[in-house]
Amino acid sequence: MKQPNELFQIALQALVDKQEKGVRGSLSTSEKILSEYGSCNSPSLELGFERIVSEYEKSGLINVVRYKGSAGIKSISLNDYDKAIKLLNHTPLAVQIQDSLEVFETSFAENFQPYILRLKEFAQDKWKKKNSFLGCYVGDTEKLIEIVRAAIVILNREDDNNIDYRHFSAIYLSHSKRLYDIKGKVSDAIKQLSVENCENLSAEELLTSYGVVQLNHPVYLSGEISLKSNDKELNAGFDGGIGVWASYVEKVESLLEIGTVTTIENQATFEKYVPSKDTDEVVLFTSGIPSPAFKRLYKMIIEACRPNTVQHWGDIDVGGFTILNMLDACIDKPVKAFNMEPNQYINSYDSFSTNELRTLKRMKIGSYNEHALNLAIECKMKFEQESFKWD
């Protein structure tokens, strides 16, 4: 059980916090913070608290409302903010924010200041209301610096090669597992700063789009093309397909005239589709959101093969159409939706939320894919590739 003076200090701090948030500085004894007094079974706590409150009421620090005909306290309101913060040895919130933002700003080089100035505005707005920004409160400056520094490094990556979480963490953060702990907040920071349409991507998907992956893996593909690295050559026509590290591919050559290049979002569907693909077709597994390394190899294949048809088979959900758009934007040829109409599927796995439908309706997509997108919106149901009606 708290002592009377301790309980009063807590109550006074709560009144100061309310005033700093722009809320009227009043505290009812029925509120949780004063529950020990409101439901008091200890006469010493009750009388002691009432005595302290009475003293500070006389000094002009607080105003008190009591129950009629009783010394019992109904509510306390703050009358003198300046006197309260001196009594509590409390640094005013405005000063805390100013000090924290100065440390934050000076921790970054001048060329990053456009990023920092934008984030300062967001942080200040949140902290004034005593809310967190990127999971950080006004006293969490060092943590905020760490999150933003990681986000800026990712946004400014110029290397097409993927980097895994552990190596990224070891190079740019405190230890090799750190990105796992803060990836959600790093993703949120990127979304605050990026002009790309990425607000609906998960943290893992967003980081992958910048080439930061949980674990690097080969690009799986199948088709009559040759991949060259230095003096070595690999034939992707091998039965069942091959896996290749995209960063090592220096040149792509077609072994026959390629009519179609198909990308597939999910590995299980890729593996089922490959045995029945056309002879003049090249198929690639995107592994969800395509990374920069994947896009580099994808563009090399398109440029080498010059196919008549380029198509993508994704899930019928926001992610599937987002991937379709990403692939469409990275090459000069139109990438058409393939097997992405609801009537081609057995069972839906969920319905679109109102927010997801709103996202799909706002999505800017090539005119050649509007039909597939509109069918998904009208159906209002989501489908995974695995429920496709195979012939």
Automatic annotation (TrEMBL):
Residues 230-391 form the Wadjet protein JetD C-terminal domain. It comes from the Bacteria. This is Wadjet protein JetD C-terminal domain-containing protein. The lineage of its organism: Bacteria, Pseudomonadati, Pseudomonadota, Gammaproteobacteria, Thiotrichales.
